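Input for the complex:
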Amino acid sequence: MTETKQRNIFEKISKEEVEERLIEIFGSGNVTKKAGDLYPYSYDMTECEGHMPDFVVLPENNSQLVELVKFCNDKSIPIVPYISGNNVGGLTIPEKGGIIVDFGKKMNKILHIDENMMYALLEPGVTFGQLQKYLEQNYPHLRYSYPFAPPYAGVVGNAILSGMNNMSCKLGSMGDSINGLEVITADGSIARIGSCFYGKEKAANDSWWCRYPMPDLMGLFINWQGMTGLITKCAVQLWPNHPFKKTYLAVVFGLSAIAPVMREMGKTEVIDDISAVSTEVVKMAVEIPEPTKIEGEPDFAALFPISAKTENLLRAKKEILDLTIKHLKDQGIKVILIDVDEFSKIFNLRVRCYLDLPSVVLTLVEYSGLTWFGSYAPTHKLEELISKVYPIFLKYNVPPFIYMKIMKHSHYGIFRPIIRYKKFKDEETIHQLLDEITEVCINEGCIPYKTPVWMTEKMRKKINPGWLQLFDKIKQCMDPNNIFNPGRWNT
Amino acid sequence: MVEVDDSLLGKEFLELSFERCIKCSTCKYGYKTFDKICPSGEKFLFESYWASGRIRLIRGLLLGDLEWSDELKDPIFACPTCGACMDACQAPHADYIVDMIEALRELAVRQIGPADRQELLVSRCEENCNPYGEENSDNEELKKKYDLPDKAEWVYFIGCTSNYRQHSLRDATLRFLKKAGIDFTLIDEHCCTSPMIRTGQTSIVKDYMKYNIAQIEKAGASKVITSCAGCYRTLKRDFEKFGEQYDFEVFHSLELVKQLLDEGKIKFNSSYDKTVTYHDPCHLGRHMGIYELPREVYKQIPGLKFVEMRRNRNFAWCCGAGGGVKIGYPDWSVEISKERLEEANETGATVLSSVCPFCRTNLSDATSKYDFEIQVLDLMEIIDQLDIEILK
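Predicted:
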């Protein structure tokens, strides 16, 4: 399981010489090649096959990274960026061995918060929990958007991989919220992208305010899974932290009736986030040991957090929600809107971790494995997706955990079947289940994000040749020696 | 899959590593506080030095993906097993993380031996029944000095650190027990075995447990009191874990102080006019869940101004002495204490107090090494400075 897929990465230089150079660059305490140290980096919670890295390094600054990139480019040694390794896609598994660059331990500083233009300038290792605490303590009037993920997921990783958070109904993909990037490219040069691009040497902290209107070079790095360069700084937008907040829960009967409910509620433009889960997920959340749906129970539940600067505005937003629900009921959809505070009192407080993000979704971490088919989805296909994917879960006798989101006021959606499992026991079966789900969803037009290699292999068969040629040309141009996270997207 | 010998005491905890842990990193920082809590991870930084990384090491070794070598010693043994990861982790295996690490150490000791110098804990015990290598004290002199009977209701289990390194704490406890009129005696102790259990060196553990139980029974005691958080955890929890049964009750000295205060049997008649902050010993706090009791006692001392450190209770920063770190990694051990002393200084306290001789030792060593002015004292040493009125 952990053998490195060979290309021989030590063709041009011996492993001992590589170690010597790495110690020169980073210092001996920040470099390891010990098997025990490498092993925890060799696999993740998903079904993706594990591979050992050859080294792990802990960078502190850009000059070290410039030296590293120049050296690796010269010697054709793979570099794999790592923050906390808890993505659900095998993204930090070193497919071809090489050097893991662990940003999470020393390059994790919040460099600047700009109150006027509302953005945070971050090093790659900053986590959601860290940013949230920093804002709460120092800028309580500002907030970031937090994911349905552990607090120690990286903010920058989430943004550059188009993650979605708890303001996604307003904002869409978090990739859209990036103001600027600093990157080290294959020849070791440092480029700043966005409004921070003025200035020969350094950019002022208050210059990271926008990514437009120059040619948008961010596209060379966003969603590339570290295949085109090392990102060393990232500016992400912040938003006002409104004092008045309320969350409502819609309970919906009928397997696919949730789809129009989500779409119509999204179009109201008053909701911060819309996330819907199958009843089985709700049961898991309140810690029912066998989370299966019983006949007559609702099929889906959706959360609608709203926020406002004044109480009156919050009330007006609630009025719009009520009107939309009434309209849906008039169309024959069986839907009930509940105040989440009341719901959580009925069950137990653990359900609140769904609202109090970033938070550990406790029941998801009960097993040794977790995986999903996480995808951007056309919202008009949600009905079909639910009705086709739900029975696949049942066929494998796995609880159908389906999680969906509406993005940017219903312009697009997220469809994400989730599976928790025992990694060392059920991995093969779970991989088969996920494979079937992937086949169905891709055929319906879903586009997986944070995509594992086995999934991009499937996608490549369906993507138009022109796109693939352009993609390969850009990769070749940006990374001629294929040192940046090689193997991702089957490169 | 590598076969694990059935005689391994922690076998079931090793197997648990396959059922749980997705390496979500929640174990690394204070839950919801996001504070640094893990001395091992913060020092060495690579994933193998955090709880989730160690769980991965167990898997790797049992799956045969990793081979045993001396290189594994640091990730396995460079951890004070303070248990902060247990309080941070929210998964169902959280309470067993230290058990898993100790089981990994037990397995490692059989394959590659303990960390450097940790083997002294056993060899010294084999010679003198204590891990400090001091000539064994049968405590007869102390019994004479304090006029103690051979049989009594209580046994004061002094513990090796108090008996061989922290005499001031030992003597303060003895004086308190006398002043309070407790019917107690001492036994010819063997080490409680905490250092061996914590470092995976279990060869003498059961014999020593049996010996100590027999000594306590011989003294006719129905209650055992100890002023050491490590002994307390071991007597109260590990004896049962290792299958050793006994009929006496186990108390920490602070529990007795609190009980006597609550029952109105003692009263402090003088004041202690200093600002004191409290360091939660891992073995009493995170391992045994006792956080409020010591605080309540400090707050009942007249004149004492009690202040909290930023990280306290279940996310208190460890002193760095436990888990074999003091003997195996002595320099790093006091480095850990240095961070705690800096935090204590921030409170404005002039006294840093705890209820564990091992914490006291390490925190004191760090004050000397790094020139801190704050005084390190055990609660019993503070109480020893007070006029105590026996009310009965």
